[in-house]
Amino acid sequence: MKRASEGHVSIDNITKIYDPLGANVLAVDKCSFEINPGEFMAIVGPSGCGKTTFLNVLAGFESVTRGEICVDGECVAAPDKGLRPGPDRVVVFQMGALFPWKTVLENVCFGPVMQGTMGKKEAVGKGEELLRIAGLEGFENEYPMNISSGMQRRVEIVRALINEPKILLMDEPFRALDAMTKSVMHKYLLDLFDVIGKTILFITHDLDESIYLADRVLVMTTRPGTVKKWIDVDIPRPRDIGVKVSDRFLELRQEAIDAVHEEALKAFERGERELAR
Ligand code: ADP
Ligand code: MG
Q1: Residues with CB under 5 A from ligand 2 (ion)
Q2: Per-residue pLDDT tens over the stretch 126-172
Q3: Which residues of the chain are in CATH 3.40.50.300 domains?
Q4: Is 27 touching ligand 1 by the criterion CB < 6 Å?
Q5: Which CATH architecture is the domain 1-88+169-277 placed in?
Q6: pTM for the complete prediction?
Q7: Is the CB of 53 under 6 A from ligand 1?
Q8: Does residue 235's CB lie within 6 angstroms of at least one atom of ligand 1?
Q9: What is the DSSP string of 202-271?
């Protein structure tokens, strides 16, 4: 496995308030933590707790109200810095969009060739290699509409990875997939992670998924989102589906369920009180 020397993220006291002069929604409150180079970190938490907000701030799509985020020592988010999205932080969206008129391989190679970071030959070589690891060998010349949704999602991941980001940001990327397709996706993502050794930040509300994939799981509190609990996933890699029935997996899963449940109850009770007013 490739050991990452870059992709260190330091999050210092991040607070995000939407519409401070109007609705004043405190979405993320005083969040501080680090993500290590080459670490697979997952964030879980009840719906509306601020997961997507956090990812968007890190990606440079949303401004931050207070605090600072640095990647390898370079500030990428601070209140006075403006929005700074960059090729070092690539996002794989829940519903991606491949170019329907380009083949799988053309989709994958488009970015680096367009930006001039790679020659066509180099991009094709690298694209083919990543597609092979993602289980897409033989599908290079297919058009997106002729492959399954699970395959499309993998092409999107490969398309993000070919740009050699320092960090891969994923916001519930497999949410729309059925359970079987999802488990296939997990296998390929784990394989890719073992080979590329990139820092990954993976947001999900699926607790099984978070523990199966990640080195460390951050459980966020209900809104305003902040750190509730860390779960260290001390299950060795390479992992396969068999670990899901191991005692350790079930223990960690229970820990995550208890923590998220506690927060979900708080959110629910708050909602009930607001409705009763
Ligand atoms: P999650 O991804 O955990 O479900 P989000 O980060 O999407 O949560 O949202 C966190 C909170 O911020 C929610 O209460 C949501 O309604 C609110 N929110 C999200 N985007 C905006 C926005 N553009 N303006 C105002 N409030 C927002
Ligand atoms: Mg979200």
Answers
A1: 51-52
A2: 999 999 999 999 999 999 999 998 899 999 999 999 988 999 999 99
A3: 1-88+169-277
A4: yes
A5: 3-Layer(aba) Sandwich (3.40)
A6: 0.93
A7: yes
A8: no
A9: EE-S-HHHHHHH-SEEEEEPSSSB-EEEEEE----SS--GGGGGSHHHHHHHHHHHHHHHHHHHHHHHHH
